[in-house]
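Record type: monomer structure entry
Structure origin: computed from sequence
Chain ID: A
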Amino acid sequence: MKASSSITARITLFTGVVAALMSTLLAIILMIAIHRFATGALTEEVRAAGGRVAIQVEQQLELDYPLAHREARNVQVVDSHGRVVTSTPDLRGRPPMAKMDPDRQNSRAAIVCGGVFGRGNCDIVVAQSAHRPDGDWTVYASSPAVPVWVEPWLATLVAGSAIMLAVAITYLGNRIVTASLRPVNAIRRQLDEINASCPGRQVPVPRSEDEVHELADSINHTLARLETAMERQRRFAFDASHDLRSPIAAMRAEVEDALMAPGETSVPTLGTTVLASLDRLGSIVSDLLTIARLDAGPPTTRVPVDLAELVDEECRMRHQTTKCIICRLEPGVVVMSDRLRLGRLLTNLLDNADRHAERTITVNLRHTAGDDPRGPDGVAELQVIDDGPGIEPDKRELVFQRFARLDAARNKDAGGTGLGLPIARQIAEADGGTLRIEDSDRGACFTVRLPCQRRPPAPTHPAGPAATDSTAD
């Protein structure tokens, strides 16, 4: 609530300040416009009053008195020698109110302050020419200048309107901000109620198609992903505890049998049985540690790895296997990765193939050109194929789930952990690649695709064969 109130207060204050400034500016512009209009109208009125007298002077008629028909308006008639011939009563005996000559249009207006009008007073003075035989006479007509506020009631009305406008805009801005943040407050309250026991709840999504709507959608998507991750974590913990319990239970049973019949149990037999369970337990713990490291993120340092060299080394190290390993490797296929993790990926795939192959394991490596933006320099395609029973299409994704083991795999190898293939796929995806099971004539075909680095230039000397074909028994 503090954050929302703070945002509301800041935006309301900003709106109020801007509204006050804009309203003040609008009031000033309006008063200037009214003042100019009133001054122009008064000037024309004064010019008309002086023009009437100027016509009488030109026609040498007897001047009508009073010369001015409004209070505070004055008229002076000055002859060609600058002497005041006649004037309104307020200016009798005083010098000319101004010393300006009419322009070519026989008229000129100006603001005159002080002089015959008194200190601090300003009048609009209009000078007009009257043509006489003895020379041009000048008729001056004046009226007090319009004050800046024009009329007190008008200034009060404009100022009051400006204040009311600023208050209305500020209030409207506050209402708009409050209404805009109302969905945010609802989202926050819902998030406060969501905890680990009810991650499936979602925040309300406002109907308006705005940023708050997008925020609510993003939060709901995040909550959905969080629920999926928590469910996967719970399932992973359950499966891990189940698989860890099996070797522990086996060791406990053997030890209890040995304690109940110590004379019938030999130490080598007990040790062999317990060591087998310990080996399985160690494999599970090692795989769990690997998964934890992979979940922590990709390695911070990656180096160019010659994939053909790495595969060749791994195949040559498997001299104890009873299966025939055929490697068809294209040289010069380089990827950016962590060498140890990439070796773990290959080891897991070969271990899986070794468990299910009947006689032969085939490893193919080639460089393919592709339009994938993740691999602008092409893709490294690695295939590990066994001649075993294969995997049905509807179960190909199941083998990549943690601790998932098909019935055929359990019957064939009871010591597997069910983590090798998930680890291999996670390593491939961490390097921006993929690991899938594709169709093959016989057995299972595991295909890894990784983005390649720029291939080194071809040597200038005569090159050897394009691929290496090696066989390990």
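Annotation 1: The chain is about 45% helix and 20% strand.
Annotation 2: The chain has three domains: 2-152, 194-296, 303-472.
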